[in-house]
Amino acid sequence: LEDQLFQLNKQKKGVHQSLMKEQKRAAQSKKKGLKNIREKKWTPLAAGQKTMDAEKVTGKRTSDMSEKSAKLREQLSDLYIEEEILPTFSLPAGVSNKTVISIMQGTVGYQEGKPLVTGISFSLGAGERAVLSGDNGSGKSTVVKALLGNKEVITTGIWSGVKSEQIGYLDQNYGTLKQDTTVFETIKDAVFEWDDKKIRSHLNDFLFRKNEEVQKTVKMLSGGERVRLCLAQIAAKTPELLILDEITNNIDLETREHVIQVLKKYPGALFVISHDQDFLDQMDITDCYEIKNGIFSFKV
Hints:
Largest sheet: 6 strands, mixed
Number of strands: 9
Strand content: 15-25%
Oligomer: single chain
């Protein structure tokens, strides 16, 4: 397929060069004809006939080349290969048999004695996936804040698992990104021990390839680019637990496919908040929990 693309691009380039040569030849021919008229080498009548004949030839040649160019563009479009993100993840040794989250009879809330969600009991091991659903305002984000160690959230029950610095968090607002930081600096801040060459290679895997792309500030990025940069952050310093909060809400179809590509390769535990059933099916997430009327439970 790559060889076909190369050959078609080569043909397209050749047709374009031929078209440019024909236009140049026609211009030179017209210039020569005008000179012949001025020097009275051609009569006006003969000049008019020669001009008409030349225009017909030029028009036919140009039309043929334009048609060929259009056909080549159509063939190239049919053979277009969508770019893939091919990240490399690396978890610390000894994580494979680890319980990443374990909660028994937990509650979360913001005021002492007034829990927002009760009955939180579940565990998640390395490499396992689970989804949490519930209506807006049901307390899903509060549960996430508790997992991230937010001091504003009051918890009760038995909570154990990885520390907050071993958790990656990706939400629909891209909260892990600093607006005035460049794409390059974002990864440098995550893994300061990497040299420039390794950072560029890593960003290349997430389709940030040109200098102008790498030096863009976050505030200048599109939604799709921000998602890719967040994923690049996560892949640069692989967390044991990754929490996703409605990340497919505001992204285009191409970015959505990129997200799925990356997450399918992610080796750690995954805790997802999402109402996107198609996304959950593609991710093959079967452990489902829900919050209903303030109660956390397994969804049958």
